[in-house]
Amino acid sequence: MDIILITGMSGSGKSVALHALEDAGYYCVDNLPPELLLSFVALEQKHGALRVAIAMDVRSATSLPLVPAQLIELRAQGLRVKPLFLDAGTDTLVRRYSESRRLHPLSRADMPDQRRALIEAIELERELLADIREQAHVIDTSILRASQLQGYVKKLISAPRSQLTLVFESFAFKRGIPTDADFVFDVRMLPNPHYEPELRSLTGRDDAVARFLQQQDEVAQMRQHIEQFLDHWLDALARDHRSYVTVGIGCTGGQHRSVYLVEQLALSFAARWTTLTRHRELEAR
């Protein structure tokens, strides 16, 4: 059985992710109490289910500490378990709650300053979910559209079975560092195709931009240093039972240098590891 466990911050997009999994053929259950997780999986095994997606959130706060040990037990049974944790910045979550006029599950209605109450509820939620987040693949939804998040989820579940999957993600520093990145490399000091008029409107996926960057010694050196770093540490991460490692590559606009390096790094590591690519700014267009 293939089990996807979706957790994360309230307002981070769990319903969107669950709909993406339902579209992909998963039997989906929302807000399952953690006390029922093992018995529910056992029941679905009896029914011959092959793909199940389960969403849990802070509404089950008192029993959330059970989840990390339950994941270990399910894996010991030979089941394939992928925990996904959806996250977003506090400012983003406050804005989303303000726009929807919903009440956070942990908010105190008796506090006169409701914005302060909401922020305190969000920070408490982060503490309660911290242990689960540590075991999960994190997706930062702060600046993602619903369609982007659905695409990310579908790409993750379609990846071949592998002990470790490498996710290379390009981004623009001017729009913030993705909080889902395990490692972040800053490539803003490299020659910038943006200042070449004929390359400005292109991206790092275009041949003309690739040729320009391939001619720059600093770009080749940066790529080599990143590859050496990852080569040194990936085996240790795999031994630590990591399912995903996200490597963020950032430049100023997230269009040329970071995109090119993400594509090249994914090619370099594809022979040994399952690799996925994301281009946060390009996919937001």
Helix-strand pattern, N to C? EHEHEHEHHEHEEHHEHEH
Low-confidence stretches: none
How is the main sheet built?
Answer: 5 strands, parallel
Number of helices: 10
Account of the protein in words:
- It is a single chain.
- The chain has 285 residues and is α/β, with parallel strands linked by helices.
- It has ten helices and nine strands.
- The strands form two sheets. The chain has a five-stranded parallel sheet with strand order 2-3-1-4-5, with helices on both faces. Strands 7-8-6-9 form a four-stranded parallel sheet, with helices on both faces.
- Helix 2 links the parallel strand 2 and strand 3 (51-55).
- The longest helix has 23 residues, at 217-239.
- The radius of gyration is 20 Å and the shape is globular.
- The two termini are 36 Å apart.
- The model has no long low-confidence stretch (mean pLDDT 91).
What characteristics describe this protein?
285 residues; alpha/beta; 5-stranded parallel β-sheet; 4-stranded parallel β-sheet; 10 helices; 9 strands; 44% helix; globular
